[in-house]
Amino acid sequence: MMQPNPFYKDLQEEYLFRYIAGKTEEFRKEHPGEKLLRMGIGDVSLPLPPSVIRALHEAVSDQADPQKFHGYMPECGGDFLRNAVAAHYRRRGIDIDPAEVFVSSGASDELGDLQDLFARENTALIMEPVYPAYLDACIIAGRKILHLPSGWQNDFLPEPDDSINADMVYLCSPNNPTGAVFTKALLKDWVDWANRRGAVILFDAAYEAFITDENLPRSIFEIDGARTCAIEICSLSKTAGFTGTRLGYTVIPEALIRQEMNLNRMWVRNRTTKTNGISYILQKGGSAVFTEEGQKEIQENIAVYRKNAAVLSKALEEEDVRFTGGKNAPYIWMKCPNGFKSWDFFDLLLQKIQVIGTPGAGFGEAGEGCFRFSTFGSPADTEEAACRLGQLLRRIKEGTVSLGG
Ligand code: MLT
After folding, report:
1. Is 108 near ligand 1, meaning CB less than 6 Å away?
2. Which of 8, 29, 33, 43 lies closest to 358, judged by CA?
3. Which of 15, 114, 143, 263 is the most exposed place for a label (fewest CB within 10 A)?
4. Is 45 in the pocket of ligand 1 (CB under 6 A)?
């Protein structure tokens, strides 16, 4: 008899963003005339940059040309893209060998797939609030999970300490959902903790391109000692608009060795068995992101999202609402007014002003009482959402709007 993986029973019945999409759709059907403003899931609203579109078209034409046609791609990524990524790191003063770069189908897929490198007995540390995909991947793998809550008292940036008995840890900076960003000093503490313990850090850098403060680290490999304890997972989804196109890359240093096993070689072994590589067309499109023109174009798009963040931040500042993020990150994480619980605030926003956000409690217990806005919507929707939100917050303060009222 086939025995299904029993750990699926430990998952929430539905994935957070699917659940919210369902609730939103229900509301839309019941109120067909209402204009919904979607500030929930972090999905980009701007199209792919022109240089990427051009490269994609050229790659499609290559596939029609017997001289340029590509069949299977190398499983770990085409040399042209691995070289482009390594050069991109080098321009920022980080020495990465192209053989340390693995082309992926995006960060969320990769964050789960990488679990294959770890023995089932490894304990995972999850900092909370947490992007639910990490937690779910650990649950599905049947791991022991330690939760490390963070909050307003430490600006949602937890510190390591030697009593934490974990073998692997997911760190996300700029953080999804809180928008908090590790300083170099704090990240160094995590790197030192991992090296002391022989733990491995899975560093989710999907939002690194949103950092403007030059003192903040965009890569864990800016930190001394990271090459012996960290894997960095990057994505073109939010950086270059690839959420629907799917492309990312992962860096596994040659120096990452545990019990005489080299994790880079292990991942080569894994990818060569489990994938036939990412499509040539997508890799060509992705390589355009790393050209001078591509970098300029993606920065223009990111500037639009930053402006959205400024608009939403201003609305919250005007109403004295406490929040993090929005400066070096595309998410804004606010404290719900009047001690509202996250899901109650979600319902209030949906019913009263038709603005959809993401309840903090969806990111674990430490997120209760908080609420997340994505800044990836269109500028017009963001302006309107900020205006409706400001008005609602004022009415809550005056006592003219309350839960169920
Ligand atoms: C989010 O809203 O947290 C993101 O869209 C998650 C993701 O990138 O999968």
Report:
1. yes
2. 43
3. 15
4. no
For residue 149, whether the previous peptide bond is cis, meaning omega lies within 30 degrees of 0, is: no
Give per-residue pLDDT as tens, 160-171. 999 999 999 999
CA 233 to centroid of ligand 1, rounded, Å: 14
The DSSP code for 357 is: -
Q: Which amino acid is at 162?
A: D
- Lookup result for tokens 């864990």: 220
- pLDDT tens digits, residue range 48-59? 999 999 999 999
pLDDT in tens, 302-325: 999 999 999 999 999 999 999 999
In which band, very low, low, confident or very high, does the pLDDT at 403 lie, cut at 50, 70 and 90? confident
- Indicate the residue type of 212: T
Kindly provide the residue ranges of all beta strands, DSSP E only, lying in 153-304, ordered along the sequence.
168-172, 200-204, 230-235, 248-251, 257-258, 261-262
Alpha carbon distance, N-terminus to C-terminus of the chain? 54
Ligand 1 contact, 357 CB (< 6 A) = no
Instruction: Tell me the pTM.
Output: 0.97
Within 13 Å, how many C-alpha atoms sit on residue 55's CB side? Answer: 21
